[in-house]
Input
Amino acid sequence: MTKNEVELFLEEKNIPYQTYEISKENIDTIEFPIFKTLVLKGNKTGPTIALVPLDSRLDYKKTAAVSKNRKIGLPPIEYVLEKTGYPHGANTPIGIFMHHPEYPILFDEMIKDYQNIIVSSGELGKSVLISVDDLIDLIQPAIADLTINKNDSHS
Output
């Protein structure tokens, strides 16, 4: 399997990683926490990236406050592709950081509960296992509470 730009970038930076093929069929067998990359549109910042646990829901009010927006939300899929270069489902905090270091990138504070996590590597179904410390050192995100706490949820 050929390496993609995210994998090559990690190698260039001497950051160890492991490639994972993730599909609907095998996702329940993955032993590491998976974080999803959400591309948001803020009324002040424009494109804003949030990395949150796969099974969590983003709290828009918390995320807007942390990113210094009055309003923030999920934009149309066309906006995501235009602003990141990645199709829906393949957004990667590493690749977006490579191409758009000016975009605000936020990580949910739950990331600090883990040593290693899985994030997309920029291709549908292809991800990388990476050390949380390495990922934070590389991207220098704002880290804050971005998700709806289970006991806060009214749904």
The CA atoms of residues 84 and 96 lie 6 Å apart.
